[in-house]
Protein 1
Amino acid sequence: MRYWLMKSEPDTFGIDDLASQPDRTEPWDGVRNYQARNMLRDEMRAGDQVFFYHSNCKVPGIVGIAEIASEPRPDPTAFDPQATYFDPKSDPQSPRWYLVEVRYIRHLKRTISLAELKAHADGALQGMPLVRKGNRLSIMPVTPEQWAFILDLE
DNA sequence: GCCAACGTTGGC
DNA sequence: GCCAACGTTGGC
């Protein structure tokens, strides 16, 4: 079982939105970055644990915990000309983009802000892409040690 | 709203 | 294959 961090903009789809879905589960479509795609497609498996991160908002940070609720499968929005994330170059015979389903588990008792996490950038969270300058990965791996450390901050 | 950092595209 | 131009991300 692996650990991940996944970003979402609360104005678009925040953790409260996830918690209010049927079965508290949502297909994580729209990933259009190859690095994120590769991790999602090749390494994510049902049962993996996820830090749910709010980006592009007043207090960016980790706000909750979710889990991967399906195996990876082709992202159908890439084939839909009406969809925001339509990609004419994604061929259904050889899909370019994938998704997994994500299920809400719980909110953290408090938001663990990016600022707080960055305070450990040279310590326990050294090497974590999130705390590195200019990071834009929307999906990133979290080591078991980092996972435990961050949960201890809660 | 600004802008640094980064990924992608396309001309050559 | 290089790299300038462009678009996007996302913190501040």
Note: The two ends of chain A are 22 Å apart (CA to CA).
Protein 2
Amino acid sequence: MPAKFRLSDLNPAQRAAAEQIRGPVLILAGAGTGKTRTVTARVAHMIAEGVPAAQILAVTFTNKAANEMRERVGGMLRKDDAKKVTVCTFHSLCVRILRVSIDRLGYKKNFTIYTGSDQTGLVRKIITRKAGKDENLDHNLALSLISRSKNKGIPVSDRADSLIAEVEQAYNAELKLLNAVDFDDLLILAVKVLAEHPDVRREWQQRFRYIMVDEFQDTNALQMKLVTALAGEEQNVCVVGDDDQSIYGWRGAEISNILEFERFFDDPKVIKLEQNYRSTTPILHTANSIIRHNIGRREKRLWSENPGSDRVRVVAMPDDRIEAQLVVDEILEANATEKRPYDDFAVLFRTNGQSRLFESKLREFKIPYRVIGGQSFFDRREIKDLLGYLSVLANPDDDVNLLRVINTPARGIGATTVGLATERSRALGRSVLWVLEDEGFQKMLPPKARGAVLDFLAFLERFREPMLAPSAPFGTLFAKMVDEMDFIEAMRRTCKTDAERDSRHRNVSEFMESLRDSEGRRKGLQGFLDGVALQQDRDDDDIEKQQGVSLITLHAAKGLEFPFVYLVGVEEGVLPHKRALEEGSRDEERRLFYVGITRAMQRLTMTFCSSRIRYGEPVPCQRSSFLDELDPTYLDLHSYDELAAEPVEEDHALSYFAQMKAMLSEG
DNA sequence: ACTGGTCAACTTTTT
DNA sequence: GTTGACCAGT
């Protein structure tokens, strides 16, 4: 074993956690308490104690966390051991199980995974079909209701005749017909196949006899079921989490999984990690003061040995443009005078849309930056089109993607022909592709359309076999396809501006390159498509290598840390978000705020605006009520004017803060 | 069947 | 400020 690993490097609590190898273990790891370090040390310790590396499964919630853990484990173990440890997300674990065994549940193994926009598209279509286009049942609402009920195993509405119930039924039935599954299905079906087929269950239980789950506070009921199913009799389950950082309730996460862990596993060993190695006392103190307002937590007291030299700042800004300007100015200055690399800075915000202004300001000043998370590369239209072709090749039942690509680029198969085909497909209960191939259908078409359809079918057919062959050079082949249909030229023609043309063209090139890269990884076209659906391939190489200021949503920031953090847009309605307040999840918003604060290592600045541009119009806003919940001991309140002019003395700032507070409590 | 234009609606967070 | 849905003209 490499010399890097010594149990004596851990503090007593961490060490206790690493040494408890067998039986159920619950590690309550506050923010910045060396969680990943402890977990990786635990893996190393297990292997040192003779546990075969291949029997260890570490499940995380996000790919980012999985990648990080894989890297850390790799640094601590011999290379061949490290490779044998399985580190993956819940969803990719489910895909693994299902690609082998989903046929037991009546699906075909070449199922397609429907993500975000595929789902919305499908639901939207169903809503208009069921209710006409004037009906404005919000498709996002419908989807989230459907998702929630799928996870809980109960129908959306008790009234079977209600529109939403109809939509739900149609959605699920249609998915099955398309030989497609959504994210919820991945969990549901994996749990189902394990529950209903003891041989499958036994196989996986024997494969993974030691299970670790990271970010356990984000698991939902199904994920808990999956863990229990895999754990088997031995119950070598170690979960790590922090209820104060539970921020995925809206997605069905059950905070009770961690709060009531004892209900699921007998007599677990519970270990708390409370020493924080990340942040200074002012930052931690401020963080503790906000999370105290939540009830029903597992009490933790985070402390730090680092007194730090900076107080926490709260800055009032006139509007969001100036907010971006000031933050960028400060970054520029700290980089110039303190020689701080740009990677030391992060701008954190509640909603994706808030990153735009910062992006353009940073570009303006030629400061390198990276956007973490945000709109996926794979959601761009041109990329979805290309993915559509690949999906149709892999799964001929995938009507949604077939319809997406059937006339992109335009090839003479217009709305009339498509309408005819879908109608017949519904009538016969066959896939659209099946209908197109049917001679009876072809005879109904006018000669021109028939020719176009035949050409299209021949085109697909020519590539299907070669692309799906076990070790096919599918990237190279697909490049040929794209070339033959003149995809790029057609796309360029539909672009309005030169900039758009360039960016789309670049995207296509990048996509083709990543496709060709994955040829070498031996997972086949199917593996590539899985990776895309699970967001695994999201150029994490690229983004890791990229340097510069990080722009991140609060959700995506969990697990990360930065010396200098700007938490922007701390306004009522943004953080806490208006929609969240309507749903009554103020506590979760508070945890989100807490997560944001605890990302900061040295210096934390929070800003709020008096006015913000929304939909192109300025809208007045107010500081967040969360700011009033903070303990002011380590807090300085500044106005933009002060900061823009001269740095203020601390006592002045303090009295300003006191004044402000007094004013607020009066009103 | 395709193109280009106007208009509306929209932004919570993500595997 | 962006994206898509819809419509009228070629």
Note: Confidence is low (pLDDT under 50) at residues 648-652 of chain A.
